[in-house]
Amino acid sequence: MKFCVLTLFPELFDPFWNHGIIRRAVQGQKINPATINIRDHAKGRHRVTDDRPYGGGCGMVMKPEPLAAALAEAKKGMPSATTLLLSPQGKRFDQPLAQSLASEEGLILVCGRYEGVDERFVDLHVDGEISIGDFVLTGGELGAMVVIDAVVRLIPGVLGNDDSAGSDTFCDGLVEHAHYTRPSTVDDEPVPDVLLSGNHQEIERWRRETALMRTFMKRPDLLAQRELSPQERELLVKWRRDIDRLIG
Length: 248
Ligand code: 9D3
Fold this sequence. Notes:
By secondary structure, the chain is of the alpha/beta class. Helix content is 39%, strand content 17%. Helix 3 (64-77) packs parallel to helix 5 (119-125).
């Protein structure tokens, strides 16, 4: 899958492309990364990429022509790519959106800076707008990295078999069970006995039950959104009875 990022700060992406699973995906040719410096497509001796907003007000707006020229350059190498703008007004990025982007042939990610991007560029050239959450960033670059990171790991062959994208948090709507590794005791805290028992059926049952309990404790919002299986309903009813008995 091809990724092309349009940004005023292409250097920010050098370490991103060059570490960990992303780097491995590049080396294994699962992904083909590019960055385009929007400033390289700005005209004039000063290569200006921003200007004052019509109508007044504070802050600057990204000029449409350098963005359009940078985008045209990106599309030369990937004519069928989807163009996404990272912006606070975008659709909230989530795992289902990551899944659907993972089947695209190519993505062009446009990173805004300043107060925003001239709306005509958005209207004429952008297929979709994505936000990574309800907080204020200084630009779209971290958003683009978040989107790319979440999408790349869903591309077949990028993760190893024992680190499969299928058993993810959120993939079945629950947070994960707790994880433990050696040593078996840390500051007098032992690993749960069942994990040392070798009884894989019991271990699987413990993981399912504690995942449900942890979701209830840490992310009740996830449970509210999700259908309960008959076994999960039964467990919650049992816990309710236990709590009722406890408080009399
Ligand atoms: C004061 C009005 N601001 C809108 C909330 C202006 C503004 C703030 C921050 C305009 C652009 C930005 C830069 N942010 C992004 O480019 C951005 C972003 C974000 O701020 N939050 C969550 N996701 C994203 S994706 C891109």
